[in-house]
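User: We ran a pulldown and think these components assemble together. Before we commit to crystallization trials, I'd like a predicted model of the whole complex to look at. Sequences follow.
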Amino acid sequence: MKIYVPRDAAAKALGADRVVKAIEAEIAERGIDATIVRNGTRGMIWLEPLVEIETSEGRIGYGPVTPADVKAIFEGDSDKGLGNVEEIPFFAQQNRLTFARVGKIDPLSMADYEAHGGLSGLRRALTLNGDQLIDEMKTSGLRGRGGAGFPTGIKWDTVRLAQAEQKYIVCNADEGDSGTFADRMIMEGDPFTLIEGMVIAGLTVGATKGYVYIRSEYPDAIEVMSSACAIARDHGLLGNVVGSGNTFDIEVRVGAGAYVCGEETSLLNSLEGKRGTVRAKPPLPALQGFMGRPTVVNNVISLATVPVIFEKGGQHYADFGLGRSKGTMPIQIAGNVKFGGLFETAFGMPLGDLVNKIGGGTASGRPVKAVQVGGPLGAYMPVSKFDTPFGYEEFDGQGGLIGHAGIVVFDDSADMLGMARFAMEFCAVESCGKCTPCRIGAVRGVETIDRIAKGDGEAVELLTDLCETMKDGSLCALGGFTPYPVMSALQNFPEEFQGVKEAAE
Ligand SMILES: Cc1cc2nc3c(=O)[nH]c(=O)nc-3n(C[C@H](O)[C@H](O)[C@H](O)COP(=O)(O)O)c2cc1C
Ligand code: SF4
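Assistant: Here's a predicted model for the assembly, 505 residues in total across the polymer chains.
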């Protein structure tokens, strides 16, 4: 008998370890022959800890399970039964390509990984030459999932064509956006797919060394990735790559914790042991990156999607999606929402469906007021924009961005002026300090919003001007994109910026 209990940080935070202890005690008391597998999460966070029992009819789920529920599960009269986990509508409606194995397998079992299609992408990649590898990536249409949406195939080609003794693959696992957890989920639930993706990237561009830069706030991901690299080395996935004569190895590095260290050039400085300040571009990291060498910097999801592209073919991947937003996106639904979690689907689903049909509306039961999409620098999308299909260009056209695809839901009690102030303050606190519009502009921005809150209507024009300056004059997107949340709050909820509350007092 196999019993699955996630080792994912979210499941653990909700009591998964205590549930495991209760299951172990029950197994010992009953003298049953059973194995507990610590899998990743299925991504249905409201059901965590989600316990699954393997049966002839598939994996039957129970959740959210507390230690007190365990006895009833073994006795067959639990009221926490969910039936076949893969038939739960939230799960069944997804198109899982990148996350196909997450929640299913034991994350640190290479045998389980291979039994579920692992390494077939790499084996196929090893039969292709450099041009064919790049073509496959370009055909897939994969765009960087870290935020900017730059085509991965073109980035790889730049690094491949650069002449240098040493090249690098750097995986950006800093995941600082609000409401996002997809990078963490994949590292904790299917680390070998990230390793395999990095190996394929190395083969394609001619890099022999890779780094995974993980935020320090992710101790579980750091532990799983470190163990996975050691296991991959033992199994010959790293080192002499599956006996092919190609060399590739990976080191896990831990960031000290600053939002701006997710910005690729700041990350590279941090990786080199320097202060995490942004570098001016050009030169692009693709030409002068880590230690001044040509470097691919890609997000976790971008790299973890590479194996399935090679396993199923670039065209198979490109057949999902909408316009230039090809493939699937792991959308992270968070905030004040009933069914929060990870929903991987082809681009194109309207935002309102994601929030109301998939997410079930607010957890508070009050009407939705706005959703912030794309992290702390993303716009607040009002309900009137809920028809917007999920896609890079479609969101851009509505004054928004999809970033790392985190959706944070707010109900009608949200204070939008307060949210605009929070965005400015976030920028002031997290600014690397290199350029004036961001370093000083954000501080002045907070002061200006405070003036508006006190009823100074003229300060609204000043705030608009300041946002224009920050947008046009900042060196990187931290300062350059802070106007998105601020201006979207102002434009979509103007009545909250009239200082009425204070003025009336
Ligand atoms: C302030 C700031 C923070 C960022 N944080 C992240 C992050 O946490 N993870 C990430 O992958 N990209 C982040 N990015 C984007 C990276 O600079 C870069 O575009 C990305 O890592 C490239 O990988 P991709 O092409 O696979 O998306 C951030 C950018 C900015 C400006
Ligand atoms: S915009 Fe802000 S974070 Fe970016 S380089 Fe300028 S000061 Fe640094």
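The longest helix spans residues 219-234. That may be worth checking against your pulldown data before setting up trials.

User: Thanks, that helps.
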